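G., before I forget:
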Amino acid sequence: MHQIITIIKEIKSELFKVGFFQSLINSFIVFLIFYILLMPFKIQWFAAATPAILLFFLNLLYLTKKRNLEYVETLFPLVNEQLRTAKDNLNKDNEITRRLNQEVIEKARRIKTSFFINFKALNLSIIIVIALSVSIFFLSYINLNKIDFNEFNFNNPLGTLQKITSNKPAGGSGESGNDNIFGKESVAILGNNELNLKLNPSSTELNVEDLQDTEEKNFDTAFPQDIKSSAEANFKEEIPKENQEIVKKYFEKITEGK
Amino acid sequence: MKLEEAKKNMDLLISEVRKVVVGQTEMVKDVLVAILTDSHALLEGYPGLAKTLTVKTIASLMDLKFSRIQNTPDLMPSDITGTNIVNERREFKFQPGPIFANLVLSDEINRAPPKLQSALLEVMQERQVTVGNTTYKLERPFFVLATANPIEQEGVFNLPEAQADRFLLKIKAQYPTTEEELEIVERYAESNTQIKLKPIMKKETIEYLQELTKQVPIARDIKRYAVDLVRSTRTKKDLIEYGASPRASIGLILASKARALLEGRNYVSKEDIKTMAYPVLRHRILLTFEAERNNLSEDDVIRELLK
């Protein structure tokens, strides 16, 4: 009797674990979808987490209710109707219920947690999570949140979009919407000391109208006086006397060969 | 006795019955269901479908006191219950009727007059007989297996629905298949072999099997399915005028338990409920005029309910 109770508890616990994990993945997918949808609107990330958390609890409740012993029996037909019967007749102790319990215990040992996992759905969920994560990386790269949708005119969406994109280029440094590309004066502060800097904007653009004729220049052909040449210094080799004759012969041999 | 032994006993009984009765396996099983549930059964079918032979064969295989009542329109209740007679010492002495047996075959029950039917059904319900001021308890086990012929119109008194409710099952005898009929012809028209049967099931065994039947566990949702099925006979107003009573719910669960035991299972399956729904419900529902006009039988309606 005790054994059958333990087995039923174990099965229920495994069902809950699988349901918990599945709810977690589903709610994570919802979180990622909401995160992507809310990215352009400068809304905090926890706004996307709220529906995900809500879904997690609802999904868990649904799965816990739906995945009962009947569900186990459909996945493992060997204990079909027996598991439920054994569970509903725990308070009865007679020859037949004892035999039923024994049979269920033997068969239930073959039930594995993997029976409760829908690998197709799990793989699909993982693929969706990966795809959504990659989408978030991509959208972060193009800095979608720089587009201020507050200025968006929904009556003329195309025109407004053109205006937004031409005025405020995506990417780059500095604050968008500020015409002064050198930034604010307050930027010129080093630690607590205010720097006395003056930034002079310069232009590299050529104005064709400012071009003038070339001036003729005369160059002096004489070399400067202070340029002198000096004799080459000889290199004195310090060869020991006893070896000097050998060296001399060696060089003579070399010159003979030429 | 263990469960396996019980199953072996039942299988042996069925195989022994098959030596005499060709086919009719479902009918034989249903009769055994009635015996296992300590209830009564009504066998209905056209003449010559081995209804009486089946009951007689089962009775001879069981070590039980068997009696047969051949019903006729002039039969009196005292003819079956028994009566007080004056003996040689001029004293009243109760002479028990054929109802004082373990297994009673009430042949062609629809030929019996209403007074007798009423007396018989009271005995079936109370399992006791009252003659004068004295009440006599019937010996257990006690079951009545009645047969009826549905095509007779002259001199018959069809059982009222309330009285038919006393029978746990209404078993329909079906026509045999061609192969079965060929075997029947070979067995009974071409040879004179007399099959002698010996009792193979003792009274104690039957009582033990009846106790075992009650012990067969059933899951709560399967029990609910059975109850919902019986209740649906009361709500399906377009097809059923009068539905089955809670007695049908008890009967359906009990019959399903017996069926499970016959199949050697230690739990009741939904299939048992579906199978036993027909014999348990078919005599407990009264079809509407609309259903009858559409040529629907009780079984058709039950099939509809099971969908």
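The mean pLDDT of chain A is 77. The longest strand of chain A covers residues 189-190.

More on Monday.
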